[in-house]
Design goal:
By secondary structure, the protein is an alpha/beta fold. The chain folds into two domains: 2-171 and 224-250, NAD(P)-binding Rossmann-like Domain (Rossmann fold, 3-Layer(aba) Sandwich); 190-222 and 253-321, UDP-galactose 4-epimerase, domain 1, CATH 3.90.25. Helices cover 38% and strands 19% of the residues. It is built from ten helices and 13 strands. Helix 5 links the parallel strand 5 and strand 6. The radius of gyration is 19 Å and the shape is globular. It starts with a strand and ends in a 7-residue tail after the last helix. The protein binds uridine-5'-diphosphate-4-deoxy-4-fluoro-alpha-D-galactose. Homodimer. It comes from Sedimentisphaera salicampi. Residues 3-251 form the NAD-dependent epimerase/dehydratase domain.
Amino acid sequence: MNVLVCGGAGYIGSNMTAMLAENGHKAYVYDNLSKGHIEAVVPEAEFIYGDLADYDKLVRVIRDKKIDAVMHFAAFIEVGESVKDPLGYYNNNFCNTHNLLRAMDFMGVNKFVFSSTAATYGMPDEVPIVETLPKEPINPYGESKWAVERMCHFQSQTGRLNYAALRYFNACGAGRNSQLGEDHKPESHLIPLIIQAALGQREDIKIFGTDYNTKDGTCVRDYIHIEDLCSAHLLALEKLSTESEIVFNLGNGNGYTVREVIETVKKVSGKDFKVTETDRRAGDPAVLTADSAKAQTQLGWKPKWTNLEDIVETAWKFHSARPNGYSG
Ligand code: UFG
């Protein structure tokens, strides 16, 4: 298929682009480089500089490149930032996705794979989380993603859209032989921050809260390797030839505490660094783990990276080879 990868210069989009190319698809990366990196776009793909707000350009690209399917990774992802700038988040995450869906609808392209998030569940009452749990986001980021899911749901009912909403847990690690990793500025994700401490780029790693009701008092998250995440997208894309609406959680099912992640980075890197215990971060649920049985059964998907040490090793290789990120 000819696949338009919106946000294909970002962390998840670039890994997806590489995997599409490796599996015989032609990937067209559409990105405004506001967050992404041109160096992350694999040479097999064609890069198109463009903004999702530009409806006319989207229509032109979909027509000229004979696009068959669209994958959308071009969202803002910072929970804290979304609380400070709800309008900005709704604008980029919702309005621009609406624009993209309009352009697809105008051109008669009906296959859409959407990056959703575990943040749609808010503070769930049960873990591991199954897809049917209530969607009660507690911040504008989660709400903006949930609003897109609802828009896709209603559009799919017209018979003009086949979509997959994939709710990610904690994507991490680096793909394509550890060449495509995380490079967010500013960085807020746990594993790259710990690696920065291991590389001596920050004075310590702060643990946000040590009084949670978990085995060591720190939050538990479900860390899923980027290649496992992307392989589920590929399977979902294939399903869209026959299915109009598919929704899956994507996680490993294994939860690790913040302390366990820190210890794993210390072991993999062979470095020691300062760990500081601080107050809880607002809005952090104690435990977020996925029940991915639905994706495993219905897509035939099986995560390959089940060991945290192996996952962290790929991130460590990426960051230690490029301590200042792509442009550094
Ligand atoms: N944490 C620390 N110290 C830090 C950074 C994070 O203790 O310096 C803790 C957090 O409190 C949390 C865990 O490490 O308990 C993971 O935090 P991340 O910021 O790496 O990830 P989140 O679980 O907060 O969020 C991630 C994505 C979101 C997505 C969410 C869905 O970043 O985009 O998963 O579960 F919505």
